[in-house]
Amino acid sequence: MQPRFPTTRSPTIRPFTPADAAATSALFYDSIHGGAQGAYTPEQLTAWAPEPPSVDDWAARLSAMTTLIAVQGAEVVGFMSLEGGGHIDRAFVHPDHLRTGVASALYQGILVRARKAGMAELTADASIVAKPFFEKQGWQVVATQHPMRNGVALTNYRMRCAL
C-alpha cells in the first residue's frame, strides 16, 4: 500500500448509504491490517478481520445504526457508527488518513446526533489504537477486555464518556 500523503483539508461528513458498503468494508479491513499493525500481532489481525466483510451483510449492519462517512474528494476515508443505546460500534479511518482530523470530524458529527437524541453518555469498546483518540476527547477507561475473535484473544478497552 503506497502512502497517498493526504491533504489537511477537512473531510465532508455525510450519512452512510448502502452504496457505501463496498468502500467501508474494504476500509474496515485495510484499517485493521494497515493501521493496527504493531498494536496487535499478525495472528490477532487475521482473527479480527480474516477478510473484508460481505458487502450485503455490511450494508445491513451499518444501515441499522447511525453511521457517518468521511469523504475526501471521491474517496471514503473513514466511518463511525452509533447504536441507539449510545454505543459507538465502529470507528475506522483509512491508514493513509490517520491523524489528519478525519476521526475528529466523524466524532463531532456523532456527538451532535447523540445529543439531539438525548443520550446522557456514550460507550465504546476501543482498540489499542483507538484508545488514545477517545481519551483525548475526555473518555475514561472502565475496563480492559480480552474478547475472542476466531479463537484468538484480542485486547480492547471498555470506555465511556458523559455528555
Describe this structure in words.
This protein is an alpha+beta fold and 163 residues long. It has a domain at 12-119: Aminopeptidase (3-Layer(aba) Sandwich), CATH 3.40.630. The chain is 32% helix and 31% strand. The chain contains 5 helices and 9 strands, in the order E-H-H-H-E-E-E-H-E-H-E-E-E-E. The protein has helices at 21-35, 42-48, 55-63, 102-116, 131-136, and strands spanning 12-15, 66-72, 75-82, 87-93, 121-127, 140-145, 148-149, 152-153, 156-162. Helix 4 links the parallel strand 4 (87-93) and strand 5 (121-127).
Notable features of this structure?
163 residues, alpha+beta, Aminopeptidase, two-stranded antiparallel ribbon, 5 helices, 32% helix
Radius of gyration: 15 Å
* Second-tier CATH architecture of one domain: 3-Layer(aba) Sandwich
Taken in chain order, the helices and strands follow as: EHHHEEEHEHEEEE
Major sheet: size, sense and barrel closure? 7 strands, mixed
What's this model, at a glance?
The protein has helices at residues 21-35, 42-48, 55-63, 102-116, 131-136; strands spanning 12-15, 66-72, 75-82, 87-93, 121-127, 140-145, 148-149, 152-153, 156-162.
Secondary structure layout:
Layout: E1 12-15, H1 21-35, H2 42-48, H3 55-63, E2 66-72, E3 75-82, E4 87-93, H4 102-116, E5 121-127, H5 131-136, E6 140-145, E7 148-149, E8 152-153, E9 156-162
Helix pairs in contact: 1-3
